[in-house]
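hey m, so remember when u said the tokens were messed up on ur end? i reran from scratch. heres the input so u can diff it against urs
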Amino acid sequence: MRKRKTNYPVAKTSNRPAPANATPSEPVVRPTVATINLQAAKGRTGLKVGGRVRVLGTGRYAGEVATIEKLVTGGISQAIVRTESGQTSRVRTIDLEPVNDSAPAPQASPSSATGADSAG
């Protein structure tokens, strides 16, 4: 006995009509499509390792002040930054804004390093 040829039904999406609200001359833009910032490939100039920056954009660390630990070159320039809360993140340099701090960073007091409590 011969095996019969299997017939697969036509896909339901093969002859689906076009959406009623879309006109043929206007392209349909989906809300889930990511937008690409073409200026990100150029990066931001004037950044250096150890510099203080503010993270811009809409990411997890947006608005936080951070210190640049490493600059990464490539298709899109990036920097590895450490935020004031101690978290490390990789951020596009286009999303970093240099911060001018008028107050210097706190330093360790010299009395604790000299061993002032050794009275003998």
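this time it looks ok to me. The first strand starts at residue 52 and ends at 55. if urs says something different then somethings off w ur setup not the seq
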